[in-house]
């Protein structure tokens, strides 16, 4: 099954574990409010003990949130979860957060997972800049992004094009990808500092497993701070 899915299930599990570790590290360091941007079916507020009693604001499109809330209705979260229905392609994040307990004067952990690859470069840059502008000193950004998988040349272009066709067939076309240098430059230009990039090899090593070697391993994680 792992091969049939191109390593997607293995990769997704490793990515989730890596992001979990970053969330736990930030919360244990003293950040007590988390904003999940493009939350989808993120379950951390229900399962991470480190988030017990923390404030978690989940932001996503109204239709997605309705499905999420219905699916989670019988479960009790560990965190204080607040839902914000917003489409950040059209809505202001600051205005969307206004009715919640989110406090702009306190450090925020921004979790932006499995969203960037589906945004074009302009949207990625504007959102990253917006998050930095809303960040009090001590805030942190945790986001995943697509790394170019082809390795250059004609063969690389063929592999890259094939991967894009797969995602288009799944209804989730890839619109952006960055190498490590570009993503660190992007988040730095947005206003964050000290970016660190990791990928499937590092995530797997942290849990004593082998990294997936297929196309989905091209997704990577960048963390950065707001000083």
Automatic annotation (TrEMBL):
This protein's record includes keyword Flavoprotein: no
GO molecular function list: methyltransferase activity
Matches recorded under Pfam families: LCM
Function field: Exhibits S-adenosyl-L-methionine-dependent methyltransferase activity.
Keyword S-adenosyl-L-methionine: yes
Protein name, entry field: S-adenosyl-L-methionine-dependent methyltransferase
Cross-referenced NCBIfam families: mthyl_TIGR00027
PANTHER family cross-referenced by the UniProt entry: S-ADENOSYL-L-METHIONINE-DEPENDENT METHYLTRANSFERASE YKTD-RELATED, S-ADENOSYL-L-METHIONINE-DEPENDENT METHYLTRANSFERASES SUPERFAMILY PROTEIN
Entry keyword set: Methyltransferase, S-adenosyl-L-methionine, Transferase
UniProt family annotation: Belongs to the UPF0677 family.
Signal peptide (UniProt feature, chain positions): none
Biological processes per GO annotation: methylation
EC number: 2.1.1.-
């Amino acid at each position: 099954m792992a091969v049939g899915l191109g390593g997607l299930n293995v990769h997704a599990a490793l990515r989730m574990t890596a992001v979990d570790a970053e969330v736990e590290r930030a919360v244990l360091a003293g950040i007590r409010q988390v904003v999940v941007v493009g939350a989808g079916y993120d379950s951390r507020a229900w399962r991470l003990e480190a988030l017990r009693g923390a404030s978690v604001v989940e932001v996503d499109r109204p239709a997605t949130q309705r499905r999420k809330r219905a699916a989670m209705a019988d479960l009790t979260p560990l965190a204080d979860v607040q839902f914000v229905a917003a489409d950040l392609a059209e809505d202001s994040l600051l205005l969307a957060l206004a009715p919640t307990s989110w406090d702009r004067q306190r450090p925020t952990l921004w979790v932006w997972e499995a969203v960037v690859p589906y945004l074009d470069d302009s949207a990625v840059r504007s959102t990253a800049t917006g998050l930095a502008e809303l960040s009090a000193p001590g805030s942190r950004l945790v986001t995943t992004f697509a790394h170019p998988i082809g390795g250059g040349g004609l063969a690389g272009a063929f592999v890259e094009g094939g991967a894009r066709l797969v995602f288009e067939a799944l209804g989730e076309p890839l619109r952006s990808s960055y190498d490590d240098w570009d993503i660190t430059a992007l988040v730095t230009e947005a206003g964050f500092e000290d970016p660190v990039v990791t990928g499937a090899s590092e995530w797997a090593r942290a849990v004593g497993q082998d990294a997936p070697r297929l196309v989905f391993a091209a997704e990577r994680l960048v963390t950065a701070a707001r000083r």
